[in-house]
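Reproducibility note. Readers wishing to regenerate the assembly model reported in the main text can use the exact inputs given here. Chain order matters: entities are listed in the order in which they were concatenated for prediction.
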Amino acid sequence: MLGEGIAKGLVETARNFFGSYVSRERLTTVEYPEERLPQQEAARNFPFLVFDGEDWKAGLRCVACQICEKECPPKCILIEKSKDKKPDAVGKPQFYPTVFNIDVSVCMSCQICVEVCPFEAIKMDTEFELSTDDRFCGLLWDRERLARSNEYYHGIHPTEAAEVDARLAEEKAKAEAKAKAAAETKANPAGSTLAASTGVAPTA
Amino acid sequence: MTLFASNSAAETADQFFVLIERWIVAHVPAAARPVVADVISVVALLAVFASLFAITTVLERKGLGRIQNRYGPNRVGPFGILQPLADGIKSLTKEDIVPLAADRWVHFFAPLVLVVAAFSMYAVLPIGRNMVLANLDAGVLFFFAVSSVMEVSIFMAGWSSRNKYSLLGAMRAIAQMISYEVTLILAAVTVVMAAGSLSTVTIVEKQAGYTGVLPHWFVLTPWGFAGFVLFMIAATAEANRSPFDLPEGESEIIAGYFTEYSGFKFALFFLGEYIGMFAMSGLGITLFLGGWTAPLSFLTWVPSYLWFFAKLLFLIAMFIWIRGTLPRLRMDQLMNFAWKFMLPLALIDLVAAGLWRFLPNEAVRWIACSLLVVVSYVLLGRGLARGWKLEKRVYRFAE
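Running the prediction on these inputs yields the following structure tokens for the assembly.
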């Protein structure tokens, strides 16, 4: 009969109406500023620069190779290379950025800078509340604002950070072994050739 | 105070606002008295119904939210009750854009005409005992005459905007409103027949008696019930409310006839629509739900205006419930429903109202009228459903 469907619909909406007062499970809304859902580990929004140790200036992993600057599709990264060198995470003396700016309003969160970085220096942050009332300086982040400690990186992306740490440790060990070998060759070229030829490790 | 001395407490509460008005009027010179009395009533009507509009917007948004398992607005003030204030400030501070191609003056006057027409309808609505602005002998006629001015304003808005969506919306609105106005007036005519008067005050007085505890409301008769349902469906269509909101169907024609309105003019359209909806509900209450009379004989001590607003809020809640339930109709469904179902049923209802008047025996007229209404409802509904065959859609040009 005409009107049956309407009556069914009215019952359904009435059930929703009263049910939403009785059971909280019906309400799917998360009241955002007060309530938050836990962040997904793979979440990403805006890049940051990783530094090791306590001092962000000394520990910055970035070596100012400028690959990210060249690869960035919207060209939101500006890097100026230093004149002098300082030891990087692996221990090699490297350049460092004197200026490293990223424009928040231009960045499109594509993560290409992270993919191309050979030094594990730039990573994606999960922080998403970047709005500001200062639309000029407030949106242009310099290296001090971009710098985050490795511990922070572990906090937001634990799995990824552990992998990165393992890779860096491996590289560092390799570099140290190489340096050691190089130092020994320098100190005792004959002994090292002997050791290499006989297969016996040289003793100190 | 000597003013209230002669009345009982219940009667004083009932006539409180009337007495206040009389007291104020008594303090002005005799020549100015009629004008002052009218101004007081008009200001009171404007204030009360504009604030009812504000309350309804927030209640509607909260109600719809709950129907969709959401919270609804809850940020401005406690439980979001100050939301209309924020909306008002927002619409006042927005830029008022008039399209370059628009007909400036018609574009400007359309929302004003709508609001003025919507508020004029309250002139003949008795919202309490002795609380009516103008007790016209042809009150119902005046009401419908003014309500059709709203259609003019909607067409003014759609035509003057020089926008295809506005014009489409206006054309839909006119087609819809004229179709449903026929049913609306025919449904009201049943009451006019039964009451023998076009005066809204007399119609309410005819319903003021009680049999046992039950009132003599027209809705409690078979023809009255059918008439009330038809009237409210047609009123929904007249007020452009969902499911008859084709004129402003935002998913297809943006906002229909008020696409080109922004800022406060947009708010005026919104206000006009709600005020019109309240007025239609008010007339429905006056004609079928006994106006300001109490629903049970032992509740007559409650002030009459409270009953009117209780009934009004009930009908508003029904409007919100319907809006939260039904999807928008298609144009052909809308027209079929108006002309093939509503109009024949309204005509049959007229016959039922006549039968009710002339059949002598109480039991006989109950059975005859109920049968007439129910059988025609079922048959007409079946006739309407015959057109709805679910078929596989064939696309002639796509695929």
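We highlight two features of this model. The beta strands of chain B are 210-211, 214-215. Chain B touches chain A through 21 residues (CB under 8 Å).
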